[in-house]
């Protein structure tokens, strides 16, 4: 067995375990931290498939941005020591059945489907290629989605500020 | 310009014009003008139609025109009329014309009232002129929806209940219709909703067995087919005068018309095969409606139940599946339309004076309101089938046609239906006796205002219609007969 | 890794991750933990894109860019969501999903 | 010379109806009466002209004077409007126009100053039109149409005093009972048309031309017999035959001239006319039906005569007498054969119809004259009127003698023929007929003696003789009652169109005249002066007398059936059923829908996680179904 395969299995196991912990942990801050590990594992896999830029973005935005954001919001809204109440068992069972069923169906499809790679020659995901593609407006260029995402981010930023900002006292009755 | 498009355009424009004026005077002037134009152009249409037929134009439908509307599904705005449609349009024009005059004194939200009323009429006209099943259905719905508002807002008594019940039951019928229409459309698989085109298709009998009942009951609900008639008494008794007139006079006819031109026309084998089931239902409805009328005390209930009986006769005639009886059924639609409109108009006028519709609380109106009473008697006599008035022509054509059937079952059913004429006489005379005759019930009756000019216009136009058909029925009967050819011949051949 | 681990096996990992996210989304009551579950699902989808790209269409970068954009959108989403949560907490002193029924009725 | 002008016989009365009807309340003074009278007068003149032209020509063939298609049912069946002239229709034209004219003139005096004067004449004109249309009908359906119109005019005229509850009830009853009979008539027409494919009298009354497969039977009788029986039911309804007679006595609520015209001379004999019109058909295709006609006729004649002996209302006595006399006519038709001497009954029946029209109209007009003078219908409140009303008295006496069958008055000849015809075929019917002849004489003279002789009652107003406008028509009818019997009727009207030699059967005549004289004598003894004998005799009959006085309780029976059974046990439950079962069922559907929706409303909980759960389940299910479909 190749080393890379072993590494993959290890990383994959870590990701799955921490994902499970993230959705089951009863301490909310811990859940956030487990999420961080799962995301970091993902970044690791990106490295393994040679998408270094994506891996970096994953680490910066997800691990560095979103998780921190989540942790801050937890700190703002919850007591860290407080244990969340356990969801009722009926709900857990039903949801587990649903999840397992979904998994089973998906796995059935995945294992039974024969994937045939397309033999294409193309570009490597080097930084310069990514940059050219991202801002290219010729064939295969992504400038339009890039710009759209920019606007979206701007809008989200404005929106977040508007929503989260404290109402002025005169409006607050 | 095609006269048929004008028939849809004029009411639409009238309704639009009403939107821009405000005073009651202006509103009703516009409504009356629009509907008078409509009446005149219907007469022109009738004249032109007869002219065309006389000059030897034997096409199935005349004045056809087609506009592509939604090509990918084959929906076209196809219009065209045959003799039956012309007759029904004529009826509609008379009834809506008189309906406007009968609602001359609507004071509450009069603008909206007239708009709804005329939109309803537009739907009816559209239904009769269109040849495309989809468009037909569209107009059918257009006619049903304003009914809800008209009863719910301007009605009396438990009006919300009645409006809801009526609309829901008719919508239930519509639901069956949609299924039936789509069934026909997809089975034919020729990418068109045009009735004439569809009628040339041979539908497999298994499919017909499924969709014929759907279409027949779907239209039967609005034609007051037993046991789907119960919206009729509640709806009519709560509806304002003009709405009752239009509803019983015209809207219920959409049912019979649809049964003939859609259900029986498109699915003749199933009609042949299954007519007996519905024949039993309609025979029941004829006699049952009449018997249930005898004990009613509310004038509108009386008329509603008698409508059940009379409209039962319409479907009964159609189900005999021969030309004579179908001819009679169409005649009966027209005759009943005029008659029942007259009744409802008169009931409204009497109610506006006595403020009750319970016949046991009234009496002796003949002395104080001679004009209206005489009109009522004429309507009653037409209803019980007096020769010289329209009811006789229609009923006798149905009975004679039905009795020519070779099957003993059909003849027995005919005898059952015929016996309703006695029951009809009983309830008509009961009403006339209690309501109009006898001593004047109360002192204040003497202060009743006499019939006003618009009331006279309304009743007299209807009575003229009744008399014309009753005295000289041959032209009308021939006109309908010619148009029945394609429909009924198909039944016989197969 | 591409040569040594077949596509089917890597997809198993993403599937598991996705449905773990679903499970969390459906069982958790705290809105923030629900957000965490959503992030898990998004992450699983991202991985799928990357895998399909690398395994089936080597040399093309569509999957790569899709993932990139998804990460960006996820960031935006998280920002707005957390803003809403905080506002919500301010108003009803709770970020329990079952308590959020102000707009019902 | 053609007969096209006969159309005016029909048009004039209807024009009078339209003018009077539209101008109701606006026409000045008595102009409406004159319009109607002039119109019917011209009609009468034209009828006489037709009669002279037709009978003068010597041929008795049917003539279709006018014919136009009114409504077409299918290729074979159609309703024609036309005028058929043959001996019986012309005879009826003459009778109807004559009696109508007399009644119209009389009414101008009788109805003077009444409210609704123009309405009255409008209705009368309508009636004359309908009745004339009925008798000249060229086909069965035209007959039916005018039959209905006659019924409606009768309804309108009986209910003329519409603010009198009794009149309203009577008119309703008359219409509904006859309508019920008409139902039979209509079904009969339908059956006939089904088997023969025609409504035309021309074909229907040529038995030799009919080759119909009368194979179908029902309850042992051929369907044609049933059809003709049903047609007879219609006739029996209009002619007030037992058991459909109950409307006629009540119909006397109408104005008296109306009773004279409609309920004595013309409309009530329409049934007889109908059977006579279809007589060849009856005779050849359905002799069984004729048996029934004879039986019903015989029973009614006796039944009505018995009741007539006990009544006290002058108009009701006359009404029962009318029933009894029409029973005679039916009896004669029923015992008649087709053609030759066999057909004596047919001739006799129509002869009696003819003479009866005169004397019965006269009796009613006389009764009207009396009522006009004393303002009551009850003969117990009358008496000694011969002093006050000499002209009425004489004319009434003539009419009584005519109806009693005393020679040489009109009734003698026709009644003798009937009895002779009955004697030739059915002795039982002959015995009944002769018995009734005696009874007739008795009750008519009972009436006569009580009213004109008897005790002299003290009147609040002194009775006076009626004005000339009323007595003149009575006189003309009186002349008719005397001489009508002398017409050689058989040579004009016979069942097969071949003239029948009329002769008097002296044996039969003697017996019946003797019986009639006995009847008159008894009446004279009992009622000439007041005496206690009638009281005693009626006591001795006990229950029988009481039930005859109450018309054998038929009214009560009918009310029990209609009010009790149909109204209470059919209609009421049906109406209840409609509201509480069918409608409730519809409401139940609505309620169930409501309930279901209130149940599933829970799905719309606003709970995000539930939505997501269902959403994901849905996705999985769809996936699964795709998988399943792809295998």
- State the oligomer: heterotetramer
**What shape does the CA trace of chain D take?**
globular
- N-to-C SSE series of chain D? HHEEHHHHHEEHHHHHHHHHHHHHHHHH
Structural class of chain B: mainly alpha
Distance between the termini of chain D: 96 Å
Classify the helix fraction of chain B into a percent range.
Answer: over 70%
How many domain regions of chain B? 1
Mean pLDDT, all residues of chain B? 87
Helix content of chain D: 55-70%
Number of helices of chain B: 20
Chain-averaged pLDDT of chain D = 83
Output the strand order for the largest sheet of chain B: 1-2
Largest sheet of chain D: 2 strands, antiparallel
Radius of gyration of chain D: 30 Å
Bin the strand percentage of chain B. Answer: under 5%
Which two chains have the most extensive interface, and how many residues on each? A-C, 87 and 70 residues
Poorly predicted segments of chain D? none
User: How large, in whole angstroms, is the Cα Rg of chain B?
Assistant: 21 Å
Q: What proportion of the residues of chain D form beta strands (DSSP E)?
A: under 5%
Brief summary of the model shown:
Chain A has 173 residues and is an all-alpha fold.
List keywords for this structure.
heterotetramer, A: 173 residues, mainly alpha, 6 helices, globular, D: 631 residues, two-stranded antiparallel sheet, two-stranded antiparallel ribbon, 24 helices, 4 strands
């Amino acid at each position: 067995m190749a080393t890379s395969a072993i590494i993959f299995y290890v990383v994959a196991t870590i990701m799955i375990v921490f994902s499970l912990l993230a959705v089951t942990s009863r301490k909310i801050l811990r859940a956030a931290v487990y999420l961080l590990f799962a995301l970091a594992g993902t970044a690791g896999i990106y490295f393994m498939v040679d998408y270094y830029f994506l891996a970096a973005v994953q680490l910066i935005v997800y691990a560095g941005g979103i998780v921190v954001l989540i942790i801050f919001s937890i700190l703002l809204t919850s007591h860290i020591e407080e244990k969340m109440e356990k969801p009722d068992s009926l709900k857990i069972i039903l949801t587990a059945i649903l999840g397992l069923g979904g998994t089973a169906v998906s796995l059935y499809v995945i294992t039974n489907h024969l994937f045939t790679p397309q033999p294409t020659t193309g570009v490597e995901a080097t930084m310069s290629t990514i940059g050219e593609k991202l801002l290219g407006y010729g064939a295969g260029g992504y400038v339009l989605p890039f710009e759209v995402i920019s606007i979206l981010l701007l809008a989200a930023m404005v929106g977040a500020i508007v929503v989260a900002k404290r109402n002025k006292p005169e409006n607050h009755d | 310009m095609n006269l048929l498009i004008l028939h849809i355009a004029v009411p639409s424009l009238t309704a639009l014009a009403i939107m821009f004026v405000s005073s009651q005077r202006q509103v009703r002037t516009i409504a009356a003008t629009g509907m008078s134009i409509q009446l005149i152009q219907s007469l022109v249409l009738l004249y032109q139609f007869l002219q065309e037929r006389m000059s030897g134009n034997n096409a199935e439908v005349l004045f056809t025109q087609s506009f592509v509307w939604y090509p990918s599904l084959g929906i076209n705005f196809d219009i065209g009329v045959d003799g039956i449609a012309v007759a029904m349009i004529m009826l509609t024009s008379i009834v809506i014309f008189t309906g406007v005059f009968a609602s001359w004194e609507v004071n509450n939200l009069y603008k909206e009232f007239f708009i709804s009323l005329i939109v309803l009429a537009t739907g009816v006209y559209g239904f009769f002129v269109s040849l495309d099943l989809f468009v037909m259905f569209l107009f059918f719905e257009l006619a049903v929806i304003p009914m809800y508002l008209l009863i719910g807002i301007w009605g009396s008594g438990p009006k919300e209940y009645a409006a809801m019940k009526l609309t829901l039951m008719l919508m239930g019928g519509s639901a069956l219709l949609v299924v039936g229409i789509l069934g026909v459309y997809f089975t034919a698989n020729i990418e068109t909703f045009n009735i004439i085109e569809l009628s040339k298709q041979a539908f497999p009998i298994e499919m017909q067995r499924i969709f014929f009942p759907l279409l027949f009951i779907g239209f039967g609900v609005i034609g007051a087919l037993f046991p789907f008639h119960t919206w009729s008494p509640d709806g009519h008794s709560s509806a304002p005068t003009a709405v009752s007139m239009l509803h019983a006079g015209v809207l219920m006819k959409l049912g019979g018309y649809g049964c003939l031109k859609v259900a029986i026309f498109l699915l003749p084998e199933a009609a042949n095969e299954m007519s007996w089931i519905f024949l039993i239902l309609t025979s029941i409805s004829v006699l049952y409606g009449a018997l249930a009328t005898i004990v009613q005390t509310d004038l509108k209930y009386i008329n509603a139940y008698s409508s059940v009986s009379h409209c039962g006769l319409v479907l009964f005639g159609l189900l005999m599946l021969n030309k004579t009886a179908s001819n009679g059924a169409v005649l009966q639609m027209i005759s009943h339309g005029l008659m029942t409109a007259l009744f409802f108009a008169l009931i409204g006028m009497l109610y506006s004076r006595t403020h009750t519709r319970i016949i046991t609380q009234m009496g002796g109106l003949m002395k104080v309101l001679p004009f209206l009473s005489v009109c009522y008697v004429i309507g009653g006599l037409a209803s019980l089938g007096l020769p010289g008035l329209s009811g006789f022509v229609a009923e006798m054509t149905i009975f004679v046609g039905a009795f020519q059937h070779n099957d003993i079952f059909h003849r027995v059913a005919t005898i059952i239906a015929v016996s309703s004429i006695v029951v009809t006489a009983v309830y008509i005379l009961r009403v006339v006796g209690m309501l109009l005759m006898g001593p004047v019930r109360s002192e204040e009756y003497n202060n009743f205002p006499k019939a006003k000019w618009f009331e006279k216009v309304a009743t007299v136009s209807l009575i003229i219609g009744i008399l014309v058909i009753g005295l000289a029925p041959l032209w009308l009967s021939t006109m309908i007969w010619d148009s029945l050819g394609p429909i009924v011949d198909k039944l016989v051949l197969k | 890794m591409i040569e040594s681990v077949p596509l089917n096996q890597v997809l198993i990992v993403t599937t598991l991750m996705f449905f773990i996210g679903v499970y969390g989304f459906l069982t958790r009551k705290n809105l923030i933990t629900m957000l965490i579950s959503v992030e898990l699902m998004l992450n699983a989808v991202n991985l799928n894109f990357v895998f399909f790209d690398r395994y089936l269409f080597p040399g093309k970068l569509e999957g790569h860019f899709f993932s990139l954009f998804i990460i960006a959108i996820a960031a935006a989403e998280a920002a707005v969501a957390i803003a809403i949560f905080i506002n919500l907490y301010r108003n009803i002193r709770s970020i329990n999903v079952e308590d959020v029924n102000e707009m019902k009725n | 010379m053609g007969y096209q002008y006969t159309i005016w016989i029909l048009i004039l009365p209807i024009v009078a109806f339209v003018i009077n009807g539209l101008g109701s309340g606006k026409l000045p003074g008595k102009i409406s009466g004159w319009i109607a009278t002039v119109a019917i007068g011209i009609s009468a003149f034209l009828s006489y002209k037709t009669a002279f032209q037709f009978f003068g020509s010597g041929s008795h063939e049917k003539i279709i004077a006018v014919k136009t298609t009114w409504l077409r049912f299918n290729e074979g069946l159609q309703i024609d409007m036309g005028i058929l002239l043959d001996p019986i229709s012309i005879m009826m034209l003459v009778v109807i126009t004559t009696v109508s004219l007399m009644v119209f003139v009389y009414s101008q005096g009788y109805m003077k100053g009444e409210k609704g004067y123009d309405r009255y004449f409008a209705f009368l004109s309508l009636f004359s039109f309908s009745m004339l249309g009925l008798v000249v009908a060229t086909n069965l359906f035209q007959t039916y149409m005018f039959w209905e119109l006659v019924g409606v005019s009768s309804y309108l005229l009986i209910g003329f005093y519409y603010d009198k509850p009794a009149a309203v009830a009577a008119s309703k009853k008359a219409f509904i009972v006859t309508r019920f009979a008409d139902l039979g008539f209509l079904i009969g027409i339908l059956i006939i048309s089904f088997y023969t494919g025609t409504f035309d009298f021309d074909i229907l009354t040529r038995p030799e031309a009919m080759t119909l497969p009368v194979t179908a039977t029902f309850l042992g009788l051929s369907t044609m017999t049933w059809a003709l029986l049903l047609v007879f039911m219609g006739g029996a309804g209009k002619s007030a035959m037992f058991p459909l007679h109950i409307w006629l006595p009540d119909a006397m609520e109408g104005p008296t001239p109306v009773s004279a015209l409609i309920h004595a001379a013309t409309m009530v004999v329409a049934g007889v006319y109908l059977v006579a019109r279809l007589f060849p058909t009856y005779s050849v295709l359905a002799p069984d039906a004729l048996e029934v006609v004879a039986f019903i006729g015989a029973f009614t004649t006796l039944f009505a005569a018995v009741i007539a002996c006990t009544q006290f209302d002058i108009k009701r006595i006359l009404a029962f007498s009318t029933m009894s006399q029409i029973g005679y006519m039916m009896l004669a038709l029923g015992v008649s054969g087709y053609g030759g001497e066999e057909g004596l009954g047919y001739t006799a029946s129509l002869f009696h119809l003819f003479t009866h029209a005169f004397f019965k109209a006269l009796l009613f007009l006389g009764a009207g004259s009396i009522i006009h003078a004393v303002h009551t219908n009850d003969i117990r409140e009358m008496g000694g009127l011969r002093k006050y009303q000499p002209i009425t008295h004489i004319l009434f006496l003539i009419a009584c003698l005519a109806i009693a069958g005393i020679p040489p008055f009109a009734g003698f000849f026709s009644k003798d023929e009937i009895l002779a015809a009955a004697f030739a075929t059915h002795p039982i019917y002959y015995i009944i007929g002769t018995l009734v002849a005696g009874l007739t004489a008795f009750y008519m003279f009972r009436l006569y003696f009580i009213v004109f002789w008897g005790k002299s009652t003290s009147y609040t107003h002194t009775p006076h003789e009626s004005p000339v406008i009323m007595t003149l028509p009575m006189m003309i009818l009186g002349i008719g009652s005397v001489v009508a019997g002398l017409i050689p009727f058989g040579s004009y009207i016979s069942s097969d169109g071949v003239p029948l030699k009329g002769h008097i059967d002296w044996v039969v005549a003697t017996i019946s005249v003797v019986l009639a004289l006995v009847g008159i004598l008894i009446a004279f003894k009992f009622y000439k002066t007041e005496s206690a004998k009638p009281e005693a005799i009626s006591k001795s009959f006990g229950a029988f007398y009481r039930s005859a006085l109450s018309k054998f309780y038929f009214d009560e029976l009918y009310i029990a059936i209609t009010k009790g059974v149909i109204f209470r046990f059919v209609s009421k439950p049906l109406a209840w059923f409609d509201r509480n079962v069918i409608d409730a069922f519809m409401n139940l559907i609505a309620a169930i829908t409501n309930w279901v929706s209130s149940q599933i409303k829970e799905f719309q909980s606003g709970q995000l996680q539930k939505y997501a759960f269902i959403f994901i389940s849905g996705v999985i299910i769809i996936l699964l179904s795709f998988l399943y479909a792809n295998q």
